[in-house]
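Please annotate the following for my students:
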Amino acid sequence: MTSDESLNSEHILVFESINEFFGSMAEVFGRAKQLRSRLRDEIIELVTIGKYREPSNSTKLVAIDTAFPIHPLEFVGLVVSVIGYAGILVDNDVVVEKYTGYKIVAGFGKLDQEIVATYAREIERHIAKKVISSGFSGIIVFDGEVVPIACRRSQIAETWANVCKLTKQLLFNKNIFVGIVKRSFSFTLSKKLGLRMPDKAIMSLVLRRGEYAIVEEFASSRCYVVYYKPLRGLQQAVKVEICGDVDLNRISEIIGLLASSAAHTGLPWYIDFVDGLAKRETQLLDLISSRLLKTAIVAETEQLVEPTNPQKRSPASVSLL
């Protein structure tokens, strides 16, 4: 395949050699550099780019996250996964309270990762409701979307119904909800500009450190999609959802709060912290594997807990979501 595909190509590229691949990427990056100034002018016509400001006073916030292995334990007669969850209360940039735990999800057949993901999102929203019922008033930050994409469709899948119901209840609460969206492949701006580049890539090129841009509103204007570029850390733009009763000044303050908390990743440090706590809980999967084998040996049915794919000697995966 030739390597002269344009930036707005809708094709998936397949290269015959590593030299062809790197030659093509050099051209793409060069065109992106040339596009940067023009893109900024076009973006300014579509959205307002502002400078975020530091919050006027310290703000209490709660950060919530879940994690689960990319691949569950797949045995001949059973499939098992673990969802780790964590919540932290941050006051004046200090963790004052931690809450962690896990849920074991098992099936006697294929365990769809989409099902595990819905359980994880449901757990996060139950934690948020528990925090609110305890009297907390402030900002609740999710590692991920506040409103899952599945909840924005006209037809909501049955597996997501409860998550969407819980999310809708949260949106009409007095608290403000923020979602740090790390894996983002939306094309809202790209379609308007006629480019086949993810919005995050465009905003990473266009925004300067200390700037933010409100790109989209949804959920009856109770949620905003915002990109910002932190003053330190990686140079990529950070995508966030801000939901609740907020105005433009409040959005600027919230972005300032997130940006001022940036770790070396560019993300707020408490997102990295709570992410680590949730992932640590999933290490239970290794213990489950060994104990299941012992249990099956006693019952003389150890063949049921052999890996369904014999080539995988260790069914547990260390890669986590």
Notes: The chain is about 35% helix and 20% strand. Helices lie at 18-46, 113-133, 161-171, 188-193, 199-206, 248-260, 269-281, 284-298.
